[in-house]
Every structure is written in C-alpha cells, then in structure tokens.
C-alpha cells in the first residue's frame, strides 16, 4: 500500500481510498464556485424540491444506507437507523415546512429620526461551504450541515475526518440519484490533512465537527484567513440524579445515555453524579442493567463496536489512568477479543476530578459515577469541565430543576430525560467552552449559512437630510433635545415641542 492510500477499517471489509491531492482540492473548489453561481439563483421552492426528493430517497433506501453505516462504524442497525438516518430525514422535513418563513425578507422598524425610510433584512447564500465531519455518527454529522447549507443556496465540499469508503460512495450515489447539479456537493478524501488544504482554498465558511483537539488546528488555519467557522465539537456531558428522582427511569436513562452508539456521540453521558442517599441503590441497578447489555452485530445486539483502533487505545489509556489513581472498575473495562473492536460497557466508581476519564473526551462505553451531598456540590462538580455541550438533570422538584437550568454551564439541557432535545429540529443545537460555537438545527441553524443583508430605502423627495452637511449649532441642539426627551429621564415633550422637533428633523 502506498503512503497516500487510506484504508476504511473493518475486520471484514477493507477498501482503499486514494487521498485527494492539492491539485484536486483546487479543482474541486473552482467547480463548487462555478456551480454556486447557478445554484444560488434557484428559487427556494426549487431547492426544497431537491430536498424532498432526497428525503424520499433516504426513506426508500434506508435499509441499504443502514447496512453501509453498520459496515463502516460497527454500530448496531437500530442505532444506525435512529441516530443517523431518521434524524436526517426529520431535519429535512422540518426545513421543508419552515425554510420559507425563516428565509423570507423581514421588514423591521425604523427610528423616528429616520422617518421616511423603510428597513428590511434579506438573506443571501454565502458561497462554498467546507464541511469537516467526524468518524463518529458519520452519516448524519455530514448530511445535516450539507442539507442545511444547500437549502440556503450554498454548494459544498465535504471532507470526512476519517475516509470511509462505503459512505464516500454512498454520498455520491445519493446526490446523483436525486439529480442534484453536478458539483453542488463534492467529497474529498484524506482526513485532517486534506481539510487543511480545503481551508487554503478559501471557502466562504467552514463547518467543523469532531474532536476538539483535531478541530482546533483547522480552526486556527481558517482564522488566519478570516474565514468564518462553526465548531460543533465534543462534550463531557454530566447527568445529575437527586434523591427525589424516579430512580428506575433515571437508571434506564443513564445506561442508554452512556452506552448508545457504544458511547460514541457528542452528547454521551460520561459523568454521573448521584446524591449520597440513593447512590447505593442506583449503583446496584446500574451495574445490573449494564451487565445485561447484548454486545455484537445484528438486530439482537444492543451495543456495537468502537469505531477505530485509535479510539480503543484512548479508552484503554483513560481507564488505566483512573484505576492507577484509585478508581474501581465496577464492571467491564476490557476489549472482548483482539480480532474485533468490541469493548465491554464499563462503570467506574471511586472517581475524582484528577482523573482523565473525568476531564477529557472519551468516546467509548464508559460511565464514571460519583456521589454528592448538596445541590451546590452537584452543580459545581458538573460545571467543573472544560466542555459545555449538554447535561441531564433528574428531580421531581420544579424549583430544583429551575435552579439547575439557571446554573448549568452548557447549551443543551434535558430535565428528567436524556438526549431528547437533540431529536427536535425546532431547538438550536450548540456548545460553549471547548464544545465549540455556532448553531445547528432550528431557524438559527439555517440562517447560519446566510449573509443577512440590511437594506434601507428612502421613500421621500427631499434633496438633503438634516443629518448631512453643512453642520451647525442647530443640529447639535436638536439632537440633544431628541436624546434628552426620548432616552433620558426628562418628561415627554409637549405637543408644540414635539412638532418643533419633528419639523427640524424633517427639514
């Protein structure tokens, strides 16, 4: 194998992907810009018709798509269907219904002193959008920004951070099948090296999703060229269970929140904080339910494999660090066999915040559990993280839940639930701290791929304006009257004074 061939990893499926060369990246950008000059002039109704055809294609071919996702990622079929295909279909349907109102030109108010003018905002597409998608949840993590950017009128250069042969060809098949203009979506191969070449080609915007460490290098390169960037990065999500919570539901949620997709999603529950008085009871249930999980492939399995050898090694290092510092393995902690990337679902107790497992991204089936005594301690521990993606809070007390919402340093919160808000395309999805910035989903997610254009139109017939040259003392005094009367504590102007001010401004 030559040094510029990359293999898609799967024990039963190996197919080489040739890395996109610098010359090919340049050519792809030229093509994308040419197609953009045409695609941007399609009406929104025309673009949404393509998205409708895309939705129908995904529905009709969902089984084939699931098989290819499973082949490349090792996840179980139901999770490929739920978290990859269904979420994409749901987002398309949402924008089919709402894109028109979101992108519609909006009239806005005009200040009194600018009387005679009309103000509005219109939205224009940005150009070529560079998308760097992660190896975790590779289908929906690519398709969601692609769909959103296309609806807004942009063209796409997609660079998966891990070249996945089956999905690479799948993306090409999908967009060819719906007769999307050739070049509107192009896929590059080569991971982060090619992503940096993509930045050098100067797209209108970069959308980067993946691990914080790798994404920062691409972000820094983009910032040097003043390219706007959206960062949808990883998290270290916490779950807090207070003593008055429904323990059975909370335990079931913790197991699913920690181990779905083999613990490999941005919003995986990595840290579980449990009030002391119910800690023992919850731990007993958690261990029992975790050990009952079925690992493997096919429709009978509940947890699939780790996505890569690199992720497996990182997971092993974090567990070893925790145990060396005093943590106890309640269950799991081992690779099931050397020929596959299956890893036992793992519970760590006796943990503290000096351990890597409590501080760094994990992306694997591990949950670390820690008790707390007071509400304040729970919030402090949950917020003691460099990441700020999401959290899950459990209590029957409305007052306690409201307190937690106000104090949690995250952008996505579930109350007595887990991951649920991420399945609602009406809600914005974003992060803070090291989890990134920018918005996916909802109206803001679509507007993120547009330039808002401010327009003010004069409707009168005056040859000059009071605010223009030549300046004199009268202008100064008039604006002082305006400021003092409308923005300060002075009483409102009498009708005569109001007319005097109006006449001066309209002069």
TrEMBL record:
Residue span, Aldehyde dehydrogenase domain = 17-451
A GO term for molecular function: oxidoreductase activity, acting on the aldehyde or oxo group of donors, NAD or NADP as acceptor
| Top-level division of the source organism's lineage | Bacteria
Keyword Oxidoreductase listed: yes
A Pfam family that the UniProt record links to this protein? Aldedh
Sorted alphabetically, the keyword list is: Oxidoreductase
**InterPro entries reported for this sequence:** Ald_DH/histidinol_DH, Ald_DH_C, Ald_DH_N, Aldehyde_DH_dom
Similarity comment: Belongs to the aldehyde dehydrogenase family.
Protein's recorded name: Acyl-CoA reductase-like NAD-dependent aldehyde dehydrogenase
Q: Which organism is it from?
A: Hazenella coriacea
Upper classification of the organism: Bacteria, Bacillati, Bacillota, Bacilli, Bacillales
């Amino acid at each position: 194998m030559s040094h510029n061939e990359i293999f898609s990893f799967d024990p039963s499926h190996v197919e080489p992907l040739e890395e996109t060369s610098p010359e090919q990246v340049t050519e792809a950008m030229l093509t994308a810009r040419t197609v953009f000059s045409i695609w941007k002039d399609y009406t929104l109704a025309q673009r949404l018709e393509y998205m409708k055809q895309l939705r129908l294609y995904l529905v009709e071919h969902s089984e084939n798509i699931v098989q290819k996702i499973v082949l490349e990622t090792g996840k179980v079929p139901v999770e490929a269907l739920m978290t990859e295909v269904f979420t994409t279909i749901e987002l398309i349907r949402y924008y089919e219904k709402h894109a028109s109102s979101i992108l519609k030109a909006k009239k806005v108010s005009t200040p009194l002193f600018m009387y005679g003018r009309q103000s509005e905002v219109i939205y224009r597409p940005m150009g070529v959008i560079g998308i760097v998608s992660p190896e975790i949840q590779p289908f929906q993590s690519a398709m969601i920004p692609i769909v959103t950017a296309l609806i807004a009128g942009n063209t796409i250069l997609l660079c998966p951070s891990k070249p996945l042969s089956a999905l690479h060809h799948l993306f090409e098949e999908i967009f060819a099948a719906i007769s999307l203009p050739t070049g509107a979506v192009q896929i590059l191969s080569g991971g982060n090296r090619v992503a940096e070449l993509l930045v050098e080609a100067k797209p209108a915007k970069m959308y980067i999703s993946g691990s914080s460490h790798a994404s920062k290098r691409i972000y820094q390169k983009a910032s040097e060229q003043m390219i706007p960037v959206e960062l949808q990065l990883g998290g270290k999500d916490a779950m807090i269970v207070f003593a008055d919570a429904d323990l059975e539901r909370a335990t079931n949620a913790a197991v699913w929140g920690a181990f779905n997709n083999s613990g490999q999603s941005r919003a995986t529950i990595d840290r579980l904080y449990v009030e002391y008085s119910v800690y023992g009871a919850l731990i007993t249930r958690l261990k029992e339910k975790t050990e009952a999980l079925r690992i493997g492939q096919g429709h009978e399995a509940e947890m699939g494999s780790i996505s890569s050898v690199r992720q497996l090694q990182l997971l092993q290092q974090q567990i070893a660090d925790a145990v060396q510092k005093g943590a106890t393995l309640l269950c799991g902690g081992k690779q099931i066999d050397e020929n596959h990337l299956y890893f036992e679902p793992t519970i760590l107790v006796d943990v503290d915040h000096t351990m890597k497992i409590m501080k760094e991204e994990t992306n694997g089936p591990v949950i670390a559990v820690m008790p707390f005594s007071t509400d304040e301690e729970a919030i402090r521990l949950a917020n003691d993280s460099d990441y700020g993606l999401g959290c899950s809070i459990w209590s029957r007390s409305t007052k306690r839940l409201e307190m937690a919402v106000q104090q949690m340093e995250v952008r996505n919160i579930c109350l007595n639930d887990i991951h649920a808000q991420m399945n609602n395309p009406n809600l914005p999805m974003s992060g803070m701290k090291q989890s990134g910035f920018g918005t996916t989903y909802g109206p803001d997610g679509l507007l993120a791929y547009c330039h808002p254009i401010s327009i003010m139109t004069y409707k009168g017939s005056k040859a000059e304006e009071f605010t223009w040259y030549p300046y004199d003392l009268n202008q100064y005094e008039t604006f002082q009257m305006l400021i003092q009367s409308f923005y300060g504590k002075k009483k409102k102007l009498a009708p005569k004074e109001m007319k005097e001010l109006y006449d001066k401004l309209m002069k």
